[in-house]
Request: fold
Amino acid sequence: MKELINVIDNALDKYLQIEYPEDIFKAMKYTLMLPGKRLRPVMCIETARILGCDIEKVMPAACAIEMLHVQSLIHDDLPCMDNDDFRRGKPSNHKVFGEANAVLAGDALLTYAPQLIIEKSTDLTSEQIVKILHEYTKFAGAYGLIAGQVVDIESEGGKLVKSAKETLDFIHLNKTAVLFRLAIKIGAIAADADKYTIEEFDNFATKFGLAFQIYDDIMDEISSFEELGKTVGKDKASDKLTYVSLYGLKTAKNKFNCLIQECCDIIDKYDSKIFNDILSRLAARINS
Amino acid sequence: MKELINVIDNALDKYLQIEYPEDIFKAMKYTLMLPGKRLRPVMCIETARILGCDIEKVMPAACAIEMLHVQSLIHDDLPCMDNDDFRRGKPSNHKVFGEANAVLAGDALLTYAPQLIIEKSTDLTSEQIVKILHEYTKFAGAYGLIAGQVVDIESEGGKLVKSAKETLDFIHLNKTAVLFRLAIKIGAIAADADKYTIEEFDNFATKFGLAFQIYDDIMDEISSFEELGKTVGKDKASDKLTYVSLYGLKTAKNKFNCLIQECCDIIDKYDSKIFNDILSRLAARINS
Reply:
């Protein structure tokens, strides 16, 4: 796992070179290269590997997903959104480069990610690239990630169109699960998996994404800044709609454990050390 | 021309339906549907038509370019960028929907544009779609539009890495010409034009884009809010680097006229009423 993270870090560094005008590339690269778990590219690559696809073939698309993830973090941290001064233990993008550059760095990552897929995925067919870009655009935009972010912001302002439970599910599915679904689906498409297999992995990714968001909600409640590298306790302070605030800590933990178990049941037959590691580490942290 | 604008307006309206969460789709649609000249989609469609391609085949891509253009307007108007309260004569996006939604509406248009190309360009091959999306991502991001915007902002702050003249050329080429180049290149790709023809049209688009930016600089100097639908005289007030501020009004007009003449020379053999109309209208306004 650590080895794979290194490989991904090196690829990200190589794919994004500093050019003129330097400020924008530096801003893009700053948040991108902050040490992270690289969970989404790892899961993209591991899905592809399990299904018989070379790591080189899927690497550009895996890195593109990390770029999309980082784009969403940069924009989410902006003063007009979550107004967060820290990310991965360091000052957030707009604190270092200013708001204008942070907005533009996000925009640039959002378009460079698919550009990277097109330019570097030389072993994928045009049909595969179109399929991958279709998933990318669907999940990255108003039918995915952005829908989740909008409803999240609205719910913080107390504006609920649907019930609290439905709203929370919508946010979790779209704000968090969506990027895991995208990562794993792209891995499966790169491996030319059949429809049934893609659906099975998508089901796994959805459950994992929900579990991961509940994990995040719980950690915001019980963890420290040093441990997470970002401001904690913000959800509670802002009276935010979370799994913990809606169901309480105990039910949240139960739901998390059920989802992790369902994930294990699906992925079990593939004998993947990396997926098992990810699932057991999350579970250990919550149940310690 | 007016008829074609109507067809484009109807297509834009049809392609972008209001769904849940409504606020984001409303914000996207608000600026998109403000009455505009639709110059970029018109030129995309006219290029395709001249080169023998059906209008239906290129319509999704033409509308996608307008969406990209509108995305750049929404983000450019933000308080942290140009801080402009008006656009096309109406309050700008963040004045109506708030800053957070304006940032997200821009992001959503930036990803919906390529999604639209993938989903609705049913008569284009996968190879053509990949080519079009490649141009889209290159021109929309840090190697195009965003590079132009970054250097524009930096030059306003007096930060020049290159000479004033080189900087101005870079801004004009990347901030303005890029979207005309993209529009016309996509039209040519949809029509399956050969490399020589694509280059010829790209040359036309670059010259037109520069002329259009000089036109814009001159209009900011000599026009009124009522005429342009946006704040005027801002360039002068902010001591902005423009063709007028660097070369003076007379030289700017001369340069504009030369570029328009070069455009006429290139496009002449295609006998296009629409291109001739666009060129002569711009010229008439500047030389009246």
Remarks:
- The CA atoms of residues 57 and 67 of chain B lie 17 Å apart.
